[in-house]
Amino acid sequence: MRTKIVVLGCNGMLGTDLVKACDAAGFQAIGLDLPQLDVRDFNSVREAMPQADWAVNCAAYTRVDDAESNRHEAFAVNGEGAHSLARVCVRRGIKLLHISTDYVFDGRKSRPYVEMDRPDPLGVYGASKLAGEKAVRAEGGHFLILRTQSLFGVRGPNFVRAIVQKAARNEEEIRVVEDQVSSPTYTVHLADAITRLIRLDKQGVVHVSASGACSWFEFARAIVERVRPEAKVVAINSSELKRPAPRPAYSVLDNSLYNAWTGHPMPAWSEGLDAYLKEEGYA
Predict the structure, then answer these.
(1) Strand order in the sheet with 95-101
(2) Closest Cα to residue 183, out of 225, 151, 221, 223?
(3) pTM score > 0.85 for this model?
(4) Under 8 Å between Cβ of 4 and 48
(5) How far is CA 204 from CA 26, 43, 75, 144, 265, in A?
(6) What's the confidence (pLDDT) of residue 71?
(7) Which are the contacts of 75, defined by CB distance < 8 A and separation ≥ 6?
């Protein structure tokens, strides 16, 4: 029998690509999203969740700035929602792969974060995701917490599309922060990584993101070089944006454990960018 995978948040950016990746890997993918299943409601999760081998939780509140003024909603989805799902999975013997984030760290480290580094989130979004991690751990069972970062894909808004649109409008200059460093990760590549981990039946905590790192300014320059080289990208300091939510300055994740487990290093962020632009028809 084929491995049955329930993908929660199947209509989102990662969930959409994960359903496709599961099908390509020979798994039986079952996608669930609102209104069929609402992770904020334990009864909804209990009633809608089918029996399966694995559940992958891609459902999340990801509006980082809005979370600062919508703390209750962020924790309802990212914290309590993860708890409800973990409870149901443990009771039914379903293995759980829970998607978390680099924002559980404060970004004050000068080297990539490893799985054993102590989380210390700066804002509400990161705190709510850390609450979800703790809830999954507390319920026990067979779980894998996967931390990733800076996702972009064809489904939904993302940084790459925003920069491409700014360039297409011939804006006089595109202002992008240069004091925040990350590893922008293409959701197609992450979805493939998830299927590899499921096939290996892994447990614990693992970091999975694109190989290499860059500032958002460097990433924006790479984007315009590929689609509209004449566009002007200007580096600014994050303090100039006056965003409600603080962000980690350096939140690069160390993929060493994932590489050791799978023997398949993640593609570089530049490879993800090229693949995304091709999928969107820009290349």
Answers:
(1) 28-32, 4-8, 54-57, 95-101, 143-148, 204-207
(2) 151
(3) yes
(4) no
(5) 24, 27, 22, 5, 19
(6) 97
(7) 124, 127, 128, 131
Q: Which two tokens stand for residue 254?
A: 């160390």
Distances (CA, A) of 1 to 52, 89, 196, 230: 12, 20, 18, 54
**Does 125 participate in catalysis according to the annotation?**
yes
Residue 138, number of CB atoms within 10 A of its CB: 10
Q: How far is CA 235 from CA 93, 160, 256, 265, in A?
A: 50, 16, 31, 31
User: Tens digit of pLDDT for each residue in 65-124?
Assistant: 999 999 999 999 999 999 999 999 999 999 999 999 999 999 999 899 999 999 999 999
Report the distance separating Cα 122 and Cα 65, nearest Å.
12
Residue type, 205: V
Which among 125, 250, 258, 276 is annotated as catalytic? Answer: 125
pLDDT at residue 24 greater than cutoff 90: yes
Distance CA 243, CA 28 (A): 42
Contacts 24+ apart (CB under 8 A), 263-266: 264/193, 264/196, 265/211, 266/185, 266/189, 266/193, 266/208, 266/209, 266/210, 266/211
Closest of 102, 122, 84 to residue 206, by C-alpha: 102
What is the per-residue DSSP string for 83-151? Answer: HHHHHHHHHHT-EEEEEEEGGGS-S--SSPBPTTSPP--SSHHHHHHHHHHHHHHHH-SSEEEEEE-SE
Residues 11, 20: contact at Cβ < 8 Å? Answer: no
